[in-house]
Every structure is written in C-alpha cells, then in structure tokens.
Design a protein that fits this description.
alpha/beta, Alkaline Phosphatase, subunit A, two-stranded antiparallel ribbon, 12 strands, about 45% helix
C-alpha cells in the first residue's frame, strides 16, 4: 500500500509538471507568435518554423527556444518544486481554531484531508485558469479559426480562374530577349519616405525609389506602391512560386516543401518550363544553401535550372571553405559571384534567364556587412539603405555590359517583411511589395501603371510580357498581364474575397498540381 502511494505521488508530480509546461509553453508561444509573426498567416509561420535548419539562419529557432521553451521548462520546475514543498509542509502541519457565531462555538481541527487539501486544489485550479486564460484570445488574434477553416472548407477558385500555360498560345519574339530577375529579400515600397510614395519618415531605399521612378513600376495607388499581400505567398519560396507560376503554396506543412511527395508540384507548369521549352538556359543564384525551403527541388524540377548557392560558391573559390556569415554568404559577395557567372553565361550563343535572390534584409534585423554605413538609429534601417545602394550599383554594372541591350531586368521583392516592430510610424499606409522593370522591348507600354490592385500572382505573365512574350488572353496561372487593360483577380473579386478563397482547401490544386503529373 505504501509503495502504491509513493508511485502515485511520483506520477502526480510528473503529470503536474507536464500540465504546467504545456500551459506555460502555449501561453508564451502565443505571445511570441503575435510578436514575431504579426499579420502573417499561421501556415506561413508554421512553414518558417518547421523548415529544416539546413541552409537557414537559426535566429528564429534560437529566439523561440530562449523566449518560450527554456522559460517554460524553468518555470514548470519552480512550480512543481513549490508544490512539493507545500505538500511536505501540509503533511506536517495541523491547524486548530475556535470559532464563535453568536451563542454557538466550534472547535475546528484540520489536517491535510480537509482545509489544507481543499486550499491546495483551489490554488492549483486558480493557477491553471490563470495560465489558460488568454490563450484562446491570442489564438484568435493569430488567426487560428481561419487556419482551421482553411483546412476544412473547399474553394473552386482554381476551377474558375486558373489558366494553364498549356491551354493558351505563348509566342516568343524572333530575337529572344535575355531575362534577369532580381528577388530582393523582404523588399517593400513601404521603406521609401512618405514624400517619395512610401510609408516611412525617411527614404531608406532612395536608389531603388529612383530606379522605379525613372523606369517602370506598377502601383496600387498614385504613388510608389506595389503588389498587395495575399495568403500563402508570405515567405521566400512561396513568393517565388507565386510570381513564377501564378499559384500559392498549398502543400501540407511537412518541414520540407515537398513533404511526403517525391516531386515538387509535378503537375504545375511555370515560367521555368516555358522558357526552357523555348530554348532558354535557366539559372538560379542565392547566397544561402539552396536546399532550404524546397528551392532546389522547385528549380531543378521546373525548368532544369543551373544552380549557384553557398555551396557552389565554396567550390568555385568565391568564399573560403570555412566562411559562413548570416545565412551563408552576404549580398556583397553574391553580387560579385553573379557578375562572374553572368559574364561567362553571356558569351554563350543562347538566351538566358538568370534569377537571383538576395538575403541581407532578412528578418529579424538584417545583416551588417562591410559596406553598410551607420546613418540611421537602428541596424535594420542601415541594412536597408545598404541593400538599396548595392542593388543600384549592380544595375549600373549590368547596364555597362554588351548583353544588356537585349536583356529585360526585373527587380521585385519576394514577399512583405515579417519584421513586426518596424511599422509604428506608417499609420494607415498600405504595405506593398516593391517592383521595377528596366530595359523593356521597343514599343511595349503599359495601359495603366497606377491605381492597380494586384498581387504577386500577376508578376508571372507580366514578367514574360516584359521579356517580349505574347500571351494569348494575357492570363497565366492566377495572374493577369499588368501591361494590359484587363482587371486583375483582386480587382474582379475584391481583395478580401480573393484572400479568403486562397486560404480554403482546393481539390483542383491537389489533384492537378500535387498528385497530377505532366509526364
């Protein structure tokens, strides 16, 4: 009997620890999520957190562990130790009291089985209620109900609006133009000053602002502006997928983009396949490990891209074997690597599509390289300014090359910034993704560049059009060619309705892209 009581006490302490730990972890996790992923869909945040550590800057994981996991373990241990000490005192403490009510008097005598036990249970329940209160409110604020709805309800968005590239005529000019696409990490038009059409007090990206104003850009208003945010496009791989294939990322969150599937959306056709089928050589370059987030799978399986990343930079002698900064290699070295490869590629007698992705402006505070100046109070402001200068200097170099005359250049952000402590001064300004088109084909003009409500899906047919490609009907994927006078999907449906439909489960997407195959 005594042995059974001891076992029960041990089990009860373990269960108590688990209960405290789960409640504390959920509470702190909910607060941490709202702090770090404000205005970001749960699916996007889960993807960022669950993606494999290989190739990623581990700051997000380390921050979560230091802010949520470790404190929850420590506080749980403290709570359980307090409880054990309380039990030890309770077992040895006897309370006696004389109580008089009018002419009646009572002598109360209590041990652990009465008042002490009741007090212990009341205290535990109160603590559990205190810890549990607010978790649901935080979950609602984080969008948990919408996430649950998205995996239980169905949409017919793709059946109604999706345009398969194989179903329309896509005609390239006789002399095919090269295509240089530069994805700037988390680059927003918001970073420009209010006077320049952005949302900030100072213009942190003056060079990029000038590039847009002196060339061509599309805006959601009559100022700088850009593409509006929509669900399931909010991290790098998802933004790349949306802008080069016109669809959101709707695979299960498996910690790897391909999840349990052998191939990355084998039934989908995007820009890479279209260019490859028309004689282009595709290239992709980034300063991190290309395997992160499924980028390697996507680019190898959708257009047979030649890939340059942190690992090839080591192999090619761009950086030493033991070199590793931020996500691998900073943008200053990335641009030099790109110059070297572009010079070699341009000497070949074939049109090319060279796509590159920067990284220095990644959350939480960006990377300060040797080229950064200390002009502004915060690190991230200085990183943005440095990124703008470097991009502009790279464009200056591109313009000096012989191959530039026949090359369309597209500069775009991959998604909105996930940094949540940078927007207190923008008021009701609508944050948008930056875009800029340089060196367009002769005769190509946009019907309307301002006051267009568009999304990153529209970049798919728009980029091809900017390279001189004629698209029957002007639509590909869920995107509309912005050079045309057609209304975008966001303009036809309304942005909020489009967002809701994107969040819902799509049987078409699953059967045609995930399960289906073009082979």
């Amino acid at each position: 009997m005594k042995k059974g009581r001891i076992i029960w006490k041990i089990v009860s302490v373990v269960l108590l620890f688990i209960s405290f730990f789960l409640l504390l972890l959920l509470n702190r996790s909910a607060s941490w999520f709202l702090l770090n992923f404000h205005e970001v869909e749960i699916a996007t945040a889960l993807y960022q957190i669950s993606s494999p550590l290989k190739g990623t800057e581990a700051g997000v994981i380390n921050d979560y562990m230091s802010q949520c996991l470790y404190p929850s373990i420590s506080l749980s241990i403290i709570c359980v130790l307090t409880y054990i000490v309380y039990r030890m005192v309770e077992e040895r403490l006897m309370l006696e009291a004389d109580v008089r009510i009018g002419t009646l008097s009572f002598h109360l005598k209590s041990g652990k089985r009465r008042f002490m036990k009741a007090g212990r249970m009341i205290a535990l329940c109160a603590l559990f209620v205190l810890l549990g209160s607010g978790i649901w409110d935080k979950a609602v604020a984080a969008g948990l109900p919408e996430y649950i709805e998205s995996v239980t309800e169905r949409s017919t968005l793709f059946e109604t609006y999706y345009v398969d590239p194989d179903d329309v005529a896509i005609t390239f000019p006789e002399k095919k133009r090269n295509l240089l696409i530069i994805y700037l990490e988390s680059m927003e038009a918001t970073y420009a000053s209010k006077e320049a059409g952005g949302g900030k007090l100072y213009d942190y990206i003056p060079e990029l602002t000038e590039l847009a104003e002196t060339n061509l850009y599309f805006s959601d208003d009559d100022d700088l502006g850009g593409a509006r945010r929509v669900p399931l496009t909010g991290c790098t791989m998802w933004g790349i997928l949306a802008s080069s294939a016109g669809v959101p990322y709707k695979l299960p969150i498996e910690g790897n983009s391909s999840g349990e599937y052998e191939k990355f959306l084998p039934g989908l056709k995007g820009m890479g396949e279209i260019l490859e089928e028309n004689g282009y050589q595709n290239y992709f370059m980034c300063g991190s490990d290309v395997e992160f987030g499924g980028r390697k799978d996507f680019y190898e399986q959708h257009g047979i891209y030649h890939i340059f990343d942190y690992n090839t930079a080591v192999e090619d002698g761009i950086i030493p074997e033991d070199y590793y900064e931020f996500w691998g290699m900073e943008d200053a070295r990335l641009y030099e690597y790109a110059k070297q490869e572009l010079t070699d590629i341009a000497q070949r007698d074939e049109p090319f599509n060279f796509t590159m992705l920067t990284v220095d402006t990644h959350r939480p505070d960006g990377y300060v390289c040797s080229l950064c100046e200390n002009t502004y109070p915060s690190q991230y402001e200085n990183v943005l300014a440095c990124a703008s200068r470097q991009a502009d200097q790279f464009i200056d170099w591109v313009r000096e090359q012989d191959w530039y005359e026949n090359t369309t250049v597209v500069i775009t952000g991959d998604h909105l910034n996930m940094k949540v402590d940078f927007w207190d001064d923008i008021g009701d300004y609508q944050r948008t993704i930056y875009n800029c088109f340089l060196n367009l084909p002769d005769g190509l003009e946009a019907v309307q560049t301002e006051n267009r409500i568009f999304t990153i899906f529209d970049m798919f047919p728009t980029i091809l059009t900017a390279a001189g490609v004629d698209i029957e009907g002007g639509r590909l994927g869920l995107g509309i060619n912005l050079f045309s006078d057609q209304r975008t999907l966001a303009e036809q449906m309304g942005l909020e309705m489009l967002k809701r439909e994107l969040e819902l489960y799509s049987n078409y997407y699953h059967m045609n892209f995930v399960v289906g195959s073009r082979n």
